[in-house]
Specification:
Layout lengths: L1 H9 L4 H6 L7 H11 L5 E4 L5 E10 L2 H11 L4 H14 L4 H4 L5 E9 L8 H15 L4 E6 L4 H7 L3 E7 L20 E8 L8 H7 L2 H5 L1
Parallel strand pairs: 3-4
Antiparallel strand pairs: 1-2, 2-3, 4-6, 5-6
Helix pairs in contact: 4-5
């Protein structure tokens, strides 16, 4: 049920999927990828009284190896749409490299948030992200990340009092194995990387991070 909701209401509305006219709904490899995220056990669900899924927040604790492993998984996929989506996800995950910036072995990522259309505008997305952040800190993680790439999810991050670490247009998200969106595309919106960090002592702030790290070079 969760995978079906993610494919229908998250993947179909994903900016890269829309920009490239992809169809990932019947892709077994994408389904395996979604299941692997859900199996970590950190995702939260909002359910109706009759036990139907109304909304999902997929979260997991990631390490610097995860983008590399995702690229390896993408390399052996035959469908070009699958490759592009997974390569894009891996590139986004390490831009910027929060493991290095915060000197943390694990970063808790709010990776996918979606609510069925009939249950939207009721605060479900905000509730799910807020509870996911609380869950992360309860488990001992110190940095929570949420990448916002559509006109709506960044508002959820801001309502959860997360801070925007950096912002850049999608056409700058390029790499050796990262599909790009054209600068002239109507889907060339901004990526906003939101962070909530509970670091003891010298906590990096956005100004000092920008001085220490050239975000343009990280984005390529």
């Amino acid at each position: 049920m969760a995978v079906d909701v993610l494919k229908k209401h998250y993947l179909n509305e994903h900016v890269l999927v829309r920009a490239r006219g992809m169809n990932l709904c019947n892709d077994r490899a994408i389904e395996e990828y979604l299941i692997s995220l859900l199996r970590q056990g950190n995702s939260l669900f909002a359910k109706t009284e009759d036990d139907q899924v109304a909304g999902i927040c997929v979260s997991y604790a990631s390490s610097p190896l995860d983008p590399k492993n995702l690229r390896n998984y993408a390399f052996y996929r035959q469908d070009p749409n699958t490759k592009d989506f997974l390569y894009f996800t891996a590139k986004l995950q390490e831009t910027p490299n929060l493991w290095d910036i915060y000197k943390e072995r694990k970063v808790y990522e709010v990776r996918m948030v979606t609510v069925k259309p009939e249950y939207r505008r009721q605060g479900l997305a905000v509730m799910l992200v807020d509870k996911s952040m609380a869950q992360a800190f309860d488990q001992g993680y110190k940095v929570v990340r949420m990448d916002c790439i559509n006109p709506y999810d960044y508002k959820v991050a801001e309502r959860c009092m997360m801070s925007c670490l950096t912002r850049f247009p999608l056409h700058k998200l390029r790499g050796a194995n990262a599909p790009f969106i054209k600068k002239s595309s109507e889907h060339n919106c901004y990526v906003r990387v939101y962070v909530e960090a509970r670091i003891q002592g010298d906590k990096p702030d956005r100004i000092r991070l920008k001085q220490r790290h050239d975000f343009d070079s990280l984005i390529e």
